[in-house]
Amino acid sequence: MSAELEFGPVEVQLCNSAKPVTFAHLTAALAGVREGLDLLPLSKTEHRWLLATLTSSEARAWATENLEGHGIWVVPYQIGAIANELIIRPMDGSSDKREEEQPPSEDPGALTDPR
To answer: pTM for the full model?
Structure first.
């Protein structure tokens, strides 16, 4: 079995209104997020679901796969009726590729640069 390289540094945003925090390694980021869940006013169901996702033996693999393939890992969740996202992205200057992967609009009425 070959040793896996540790992904890092990474930036983590725990919820939509939180400022991002930087961690040296993905493993530290996942541990920090697990601890941070107790600070959020989550329902028991949301808390259990997020904790199960983040403590899964596959959590690091899921995050790494998304960070390498898409430049971001987004885990959606809700606080009451408000949708939020846990966002983890690399700090190496990679961009969020979610927008890049969407096909260009073929709508002739789509916004264009007037210049």
So the answer is: 0.73
